[in-house]
Amino acid sequence: PHEFPWLVRIGRNTEDLITNFIGGCLISPTHVITAAQNVAHWIFQDIYVGVGIHNLKAFRREEEGYKIKVAKIIVHQEFVTSASTQTLYDMAVLRLVEPVKIDDKHEISTIDLPKKDTIYEENTGWVAGWGTTSMTRSEPSESLKKTPIQLWERNARNKHLKMHSLPEDSLIVVRFPMAIDYCADTGSPVMIRNNKGHYELAGLVTFGRICRCVRKNCQAGCYVSTEFLLEWIKEVTKNDKKLWPK
Question: Which part of the chain is the Peptidase S1 domain (predicted)?
């Protein structure tokens, strides 16, 4: 339990937090990253973030985790203004009304962001969440699930992106059949260990297998790249002293 203590659920009330398929992750005690498609049409007064959750039934009984209100939604401007490149900019930052409690009791923590110009080669990583475990299941998993992913080697994935007129290193490209991403909620993190042994946020689960930039017969899935949007993340969270200490 709580193997990935930065994972959160996002919804408009307690029941919504339990039944939907919307995830995200804490990058600081006051900021959450998720997919823009999850929240672009919501107003911040309606949104809660559930933290410290492993088992949804235990969360409903208030035996673990808690929910906290969102103070502001910041959606990447290119997601709103450019329909042709929405896939690249499917990211939003949520600012919470108060910092979450980073302590052992709730087993809550934050995930590292990659450094600028981080290049992922043929890395193995993880996605996790409470999503479905098969194409025929329509309800969330009761407990947090995880599955391994394998990134395409850089030259191969950039060739794939170029074929679809997309910039180099603009998306995380995961190859199948190893990547079975059913368990991940939309907006959940793609997690890869860095050379210090810490997990870092390589990307976000967004369109996955049905990503519009992937041909029907192509054995790949695409996710938003954190490094590609790192400067935007810095700009919209620049006053967060925990995230960007001087």
Answer: 1-238
pLDDT of res. 38? 87
Shared domain check, 150 and 98:
no
- What tens digit of pLDDT does each residue of 198-227 get? 999 999 988 654 444 444 444 567 789 999
Residue 95's nearest CA partner among 166, 198, 26 is 26
Calculate what percentage of the chain has a pLDDT beyond 90.
32
- Which residue, among 19, 8, 10, 22, has the nearest Cα to 53 in the 3D structure? 8
Domain count, the chain: 2
Least Cα distance to 91 among 44, 37, 158 occurs for: 37
Spatial separation of the C-alpha atoms in residues 78 and 57, rounded to whole Å: 37
The strand ranges marked E within the chain are: 7-11, 23-28, 31-34, 48-51, 66-75, 92-96, 124-129, 145-150, 171-175, 189-193, 199-208, 220-225
Please give the share of the chain, as a percent, with pLDDT higher than 70. Answer: 83
Domain hosting 45: range is 7-110+231-237
Output the domain CATH number for residue 205: 2.40.10.10
- For residue 161, what pLDDT is reported? 83
pLDDT, average across residues 154-161: 84
Q: How far is CA 80 from the centre of its chain?
A: 19
